[in-house]
Amino acid sequence: xxxxxFGWEFPPHILGGLGTASYGLTKGxxxxxxxxxTFVIPHPHGDEDQSFLHIIGANNVPIVWKENSWDHVNSxxxxxxxxxxxFQLRDNIRYDFRRIGTDELGCVNFSGVYPKNLMEEISxxxxxxxxxxxKGGFDIIHSHDWLTYPxxxxxxxxxxxxxxxxxxxxxxDRSRGNVNPQVYDIERRGMDEADHIICVSNLTRQTVIExxxxxxxxxxxxxxxxxxxxxxxxxxxxPRKDKVVTFLGRITMQKGPEYFVEAAYRVLQKTRxxxxxxxxxxxxxxxxxxxxxxxxxxxxxxxxxxLRGKDVTEMLSESDVYIMPSVSEPFGISPxxxxxxxxxxIVSKQSGCAEILDNAIKIDYWDIDAMADAIHAIxxxxxxxxxxxxxxxxxVNRITWEAAGxxxxxxxxxxxxxx
Length: 419
Known about the structure:
The structure is a single chain. The chain has 419 residues and is of the alpha/beta class. It folds into 2 domains: 2-225 and 401-416, Glycogen Phosphorylase B (Rossmann fold, 3-Layer(aba) Sandwich); 232-396, Rossmann fold (3-Layer(aba) Sandwich), CATH 3.40.50.2000. The chain is 40% helix and 14% strand. The protein has 15 helices and 13 strands. The strands form 2 sheets. A 7-stranded parallel β-sheet has the order 3-2-1-4-5-6-7, sandwiched between helices. Helix 8 (202-212) links the parallel strand 6 and strand 7. The radius of gyration is 22 Å and the shape is elongated.
């Protein structure tokens, strides 16, 4: 089976959980011998792992015909796309996109992030999708998150192939209910046009059904998982006097960072041998720095900025407690990553991962006292730490992307009528 996937980020260059999930799912699906995946992203760097899929950079796809030599194309984009593929794609330009600014290869410059002109990039990505879709060679289309829904829809209309969309989050999650009408419209159209909708949790599935008016029979849950950690034994905690409690994620209202700071204040009223780390970046970072200062706990608080790759694993393994106090979290892979290195974990009941974890402590995001009590218990009672450390690690190692991939493949088969 050949799947054409549209995504927005892919490791090692990620900005959040979307890239991590895209990597894990596609790698898990590749374990099925007849599964071939072409994954389109706006701006690859050439160091992505393509051992189990084929990546097409949208910034290398010509949408306007320009005359170029093979050598020139190779000198410009040879690191991330073979020139022969460029020319094959150029032969499939069917529409007049000269209104869009392009370079001398007829390609669009994508930022590869979430820029201020994001809506423009989404529209340009849709134009790229038309060229890729006309090239053909796929059985099904799979669009990850709202930014790629327009591309998936256009590819469906061109090719006649069915569209599956993957809801990693909705704007109800990102905005605490203060929904952006333009984003909602894109999400709703994607869902309406999709032949099937995959959600990362039952929590998200209910949002899709209730807030977007989707038929329950059309919506399935496939929980996320975690990539096996081959070098697990290399990550060990450094002996120290103080315990470390960590928040790792975007410092935005969706993630509930203020509840973490308030819980830290309550814990530090009971014990001083604890330090708190807020790892990440976001529009509430300065506000959290000021809140820690206002609570007179700045000397016990550390802000690391955004972490990625091995730095994330090292931070989690050095932590004695990991906490994710999200107000609305469609899934949340970071708790699984923390448990994978044996770090006891606290998650909000308002997170999708709470649906599948038995050996994590679950609290309401707003219950600061319960959060503080859970932190204090873990750092104070070695038996509790040991139980969560051992049982959590054992549990999460059984939550695999390969199993998630098999569920997605079964959905493909149903959509295509191949059962």
